[in-house]
Specification:
It is built from 33 helices and five strands. By secondary structure, the chain is mainly alpha-helical. Strands 2-1-3-5-4 form a five-stranded mixed sheet. The two termini are about 55 Å apart.
């Protein structure tokens, strides 16, 4: 019955394409078309016939964004606009769904769910908890990098692909924009508001993630309770217990410049219990507080890429367990490598290096131990699939202008180091859980272990090497820790649950209390901190509290300026890309350095902006610089600008040869540069 209901819903999602229906129907249908339809249809053709329908649904959420993005971009490549490309994409997949029904591929055997039935409940609860946090505190949808993601999505919606940098006037974007293209497609199909669509992506990633964790944990036990509790502990993560060692920092009260009770009070006063930084406050000195839950509560594609990583590793473990790769698993592994790489380059490269390195270590170890029956097929096919997946991603990475930053050219000097901070962050949880870790190691990673566990041990070794010796710009090396904990955690959690189940009486109760004491505080404080979190600085505050008169000005720009217009603002709010769908003139140096743009050009634009928003008359150099743009240029004066410089509006009004006032609602003014002619920042 559940399978039939699901089929009816899937077919019903096509109705808004042919009939005028209420908006909520389009929202539901567009979400199904984006997150379920493509992946489910693919699995009907290449998935195992004995897979339970819920297995397919959970995996579809991982596969569908990749399939929608790549298929639609392929159609756009033939010159069709985005809307028509999406309709053609949907027509193709609904046609394939019809073929699958006609050929009986939907008629699966009544197979059991691959994970315990408690896992779908956890999936619903975890995604519901993430959704509830966004509903209770909508500011989370605009927090940190969310505004930049929104700017890039708006750029794609306004001008198509490949996108230009929305925070600068005329630079190709250097960020991973395939996630943003998918969100833009989701908005087109579901008509969701921009920030709500980004939040839905996180919620859907949260729905599939416990299933992927449980699927991975099932390699270590078939006991339903062990899988269930190991999955719950894995959602908290090994990293969540680091807080336990924070009191060690109090030793600084005995050795620092300030000592005694005053220093202890000061250190406790630094803990931020009232916002999302609470876990960072409780991380011991010299460690990252890598917080898995943070990646679902923060607008980012990283959580989705971690799900793809887990999916790919599980496929490989299955291959080593059965002794054969199989065309279906190889095809899915190819998609996992390819999808992880184009959606999040760091996770993708981590996955490729781990897969290849672990395969090599597995073959060497099994030959050294003279283990017979090493499948040549696996040692060849698995790294080959990883290489092919990476090769397929190269044109997409090139389109993202990846690797075009301004480095020294010395790879070793830029990227190799001894990562003491990564090492300590990894070492401390293992120190706290030394007993269960030793037990798990003896059970799963001994010299007589099954081949899949030998591969897994090799993968953990490769991830350790990456964590300790590889450096990345903007402290991104901390992202290497997440895949390591994802692979190392579940076998340890299965061991912990097994020890609790074997004990009894007071010992059992004590062990349960200890586990709760170690693993509960971080998740509880994380959710509490995010729910009550409020904007941390002036820029974030502005992005969630802009006034109606300010919105009115930007909406006027959206409706009355050229789509390629440039907006100059006296701040780093970058409101124009989201509210007006127009490019900003400049952005903060921090963003520029992270993305790898030419800092000299940015400095020149910063000087122009500083001159425009000063009390001095407009310099000739500024006017000459602006004339080099062949696009419309607008200057926005907010109420705060005119309060800081009361003569500001008169400065532009007194220069009618260069500027004309085009909007004024009493508190916000907009001026247009009269002479925006010449050859430089031409339209793409």
């Amino acid at each position: 019955m559940a399978k039939k209901i699901f089929l009816i819903i899937l077919l019903g999602s096509s109705l808004p394409l042919i009939l005028p229906l209420p908006g909520w129907c389009g929202l539901i249908s567009g979400s199904i078309q984006s997150f379920i339809l493509p992946g489910f249809v693919l699995l009907l053709f290449i998935g195992d016939r004995d897979r339970h329908w819920f297995d397919d649904v959970a995996l579809s959420i991982i596969l569908s964004p990749l399939l929608l993005t790549v298929s639609t971009l392929a159609v756009i490549g033939f010159g069709l606009p985005m809307e028509r490309s999406l309709r053609l994409f949907l027509f193709l997949f609904y046609l394939l769904l019809g073929i699958a029904l006609a050929t009986g591929r939907f008629k699966r055997t009544e197979s059991k769910l691959r994970v315990p039935w408690s896992i779908p409940v956890i999936c619903a609860a975890f995604s519901g908890l993430i959704a509830a946090c966004f509903a209770i505190n909508p500011d989370l949808l605009r927090r940190l990098d969310a505004w930049y993601h929104a700017s890039l999505i708006s750029e794609i919606l306004a001008r198509g692909v490949p996108p230009m940098e929305p925070l600068l006037p005329d630079f190709p974007v250097k960020y991973m924009w395939y996630y943003h293209f998918f969100i833009a497609s989701l908005i087109k199909l579901s008509h969701l508001p921009l920030f709500a669509a980004m939040g839905l992506f996180n919620v859907m990633a949260a729905f599939s993630f416990p299933y992927l964790l449980a699927r991975y944990a099932s390699f270590f036990t078939k006991n339903a309770r062990k899988i269930t509790f190991a999955t719950l502990m894995a959602l908290a993560g090994l990293e969540s217990i680091i807080w336990f060692l924070w009191p060690v920092e109090l030793a600084r009260a005995l050795t620092g410049d300030v000592r005694g009770i005053e220093e202890v009070i000061r250190m406790f006063g630094k803990i931020q219990f009232s916002n999302s930084n609470v876990i960072f406050s409780l991380s011991p000195y010299g460690t990252w507080m890598v917080n898995l839950l943070d990646k679902f509560l923060t607008i980012t594609v990283f959580s989705y890429s971690l799900g793809f990583f887990l999916f790919g590793i599980s496929l490989i473990l299955e291959a080593w367990r059965t002794g054969k790769a199989g065309m279906r698993n190889a095809a899915l592994l190819l998609l996992a490598v390819f999808g992880t790489t184009i959606f999040h380059i760091i996770t993708g490269v981590t996955m490729i290096g781990t897969v290849i390195g672990a395969t090599i270590l597995t073959v060497i170890y099994m030959r050294f131990r003279k283990r017979t029956g090493t499948p040549t097929e696996l040692s060849t096919v698995i790294p080959l699939v990883a290489v092919v997946g990476f090769a397929l991603s190269l044109p997409f990475l090139k389109a993202m202008n990846m690797g075009s930053g301004t480095g020294s050219g010395n790879f070793a000097a830029e990227h190799l180091h001894f990562g003491l901070k990564n090492f300590l962050t990894i070492f401390l949880p293992f120190l706290i859980l030394i007993g269960p870790i030793r037990g798990a190691f003896k059970k799963y990673f001994s010299r007589h272990a099954a081949p899949e566990f030998i591969f897994l041990a090799g993968a953990i070794i490769c991830l350790l090497i990456l964590n300790i010796f590889v450096d990345l710009p903007s402290v991104n090396e901390s992202k290497f820790i997440f895949p390591l904990f994802l692979l190392a955690g579940p076998p340890v959690f299965v061991e912990i649950v097994g020890r609790i189940r074997k004990s009894g009486g007071a010992k059992r109760r004590g062990m349960i209390i200890l586990v709760l004491f170690l693993f509960l505080p971080a998740p509880v404080l994380t959710f509490r901190g995010f729910i009550i979190d409020r904007p941390a600085d002036k820029t974030e505050l502005k992005r969630v509290t802009f006034q109606p008169h300010e919105r009115e000005a930007y909406e006027w720009l959206r409706d009355n300026s050229s789509v390629d217009a440039i907006v100059i603002e006296n701040n780093f709010y970058n409101l124009a890309p989201v509210l007006a769908l127009r490019h900003s003139f400049n952005s903060s140096i921090g963003i520029i350095d992270v993305l790898g743009y030419d800092r000299r050009e940015i400095t020149a634009m910063e000087e122009v902006k500083a001159d425009l928003f000063s009390d001095n008359p407009i310099a000739g150099e500024t006017a000459s610089y602006l004339k080099n743009f062949s696009r419309e240029i607008y200057v926005v004066l907010l109420d705060e600008d005119m309060k800081e410089h009361p003569a500001m509006s008169g400065k532009f009004l007194s220069d009618p040869g260069r500027f004309e006032q085009v909007f004024n609602n009493g508190k916000t003014q907009v001026y247009r540069l009269r002479q925006a002619t010449i050859q430089r920042g031409s339209k793409r």
